[in-house]
Amino acid sequence: MTDFAQPYPDADKTADKRAKDAPQWIPADAIPSRRFLIPALAALVFLKIVNVFFAVPLADEGYYWLWGKFPDWSYYDHPPLGAWMNAAASFVFGDGLLAIRLGTLATFAGSLAVLGWWTKRLTPGLRGPDAYLVAAGVWLASPWLMNFQSIAFHDHLLIFFGILAAHCFGRLVLTMDEAQGPGWHWLYAGCVSVGMAGLSKYSGVFLGLAFAAWVIATPKGRVLLKSPHLWIGASIAVAMQSPVIYWNEVHDWPSFQYNLHDRIGYTHHDSVVERYYDFCKNFVLLLSPLLFVALMRFVFGRTAKGPAAALQGIGRFAFLIPSAVFLALSFSTSVLYYWNIVAVLFFLPVALLFMRSAMEVRLHMLWGIAFAAMALFNSTFFPLTLLTGKSISDFNISHGLPEIAAIVEEEEKRLGADMVVTTDYRTASLLALTTKRTDIVHLGLREDMWYFWFDPTMHKGQNAVVLAYDRFPETELIDTVFEKTEVIREFTVERHGFAIQHYWLVYAQNYSGEGPQ
User: Fold this and answer.
1) Between β-strands 498-511 and 419-422, what pairing exists: parallel, antiparallel or unpaired?
2) Residue 487 CB contacts under 8 Å (≥ 6 apart), including other chains
3) Fewest beta carbons within 10 Å, which of 14, 213, 229, 279?
4) Rounded distance, CA 360 to CA 291, Å?
5) pLDDT of 475-484, one tens digit each?
């Protein structure tokens, strides 16, 4: 019988010998003075509030709001947890953008609770709230976290349950050196958290793979292989994915086909070098350059002494495995930096420990304030990308939504149209969210959830008002599935004298009942 009370050696004994100067406790000289900390933290909190309550909706927020209006076991693009949460938020708080964004505050609060536990354990010699306030400021100052824990994407759920899984597995590792042996309840809690992360986004699987790699690759981890608890916990995490498996099986595996096949090879870059450059640049800048340096210390530096080592061991695998996968994928496919959020989740609760000085903390927080202010100006007042000559339609179409909705509904009423249709899922989603209507239809070549919601045969012979714009004109599909199409109105959304996005409305008559579906 294994004696779990025995100390377990580090896998890397060379690193252990070099650990004389390894980080153990957050030192007082890493804490900026309150003269800097209070105003900096106040600025970050203010920017967080603006982000949640005042930033214009993003297209995918409207898309996921619609998911909540059509409850299902899973969905085409992602697993179902985000849709289920949006449905619950709409039921409790009412319809609209604010209701679904309130859920991000709950997951953010949960993340801060985990952060508080680890910060307290890493500052035994410090009194007062300063260390925790700094740790929270470091968290908020990452543009990545500021953004994705404020908008109603699935990522805020993945971040929270990933952080929770890291916390539970870290607590499990800490208990393995205690007299009573492993706290199996932490193992089960961690496995359930991994299951919830998997129900949030498919990349949640990397959390399970990271823990499995640590179990197999380290002496301490391999001890767990002898226990049935490990296998039961893993089975629970896998069984929690049954809604996703069931929905895909019923619909002939469309989500797996899309994510594991159809997206592979898609690129909007001109070369492999551009793909790697964009992925790495955005990862560093939106995590923040100073926090990225701390992350490199966490992954490749000396093994920490004290509680942080419990996260560092698994966290190295959590960084290396998904990063290697996405870097390999970037050879042929445009990969977005935030797909790799799992890479930093074990690091975040102890990030402050790996920042060497108060100067690093100050520079990181100033970076976050500047970046968040710029991003929020872009998403509340005016898309700054227009000034660079590289206008991004994904941002532009989020502006002027009440004006767009009023024009569309005016023409719908005037013409007595049977349907309101758009040529892009983004504009359909934003129009649906703005009007709080679930009958807005996307007809285009891109497969999405309308492929499952919209039955073309039920609308044969109907007339439609179609909203189109330059990126997705009506010639892509509308002209071929309606007997007659006519441009009836053109308009441009403007802000402060600048044209943001040009649209036109098409009156499309006698729908054939056919389409990409």
Assistant:
1) unpaired
2) 504, 505, 506
3) 14
4) 9
5) 888 999 999 9
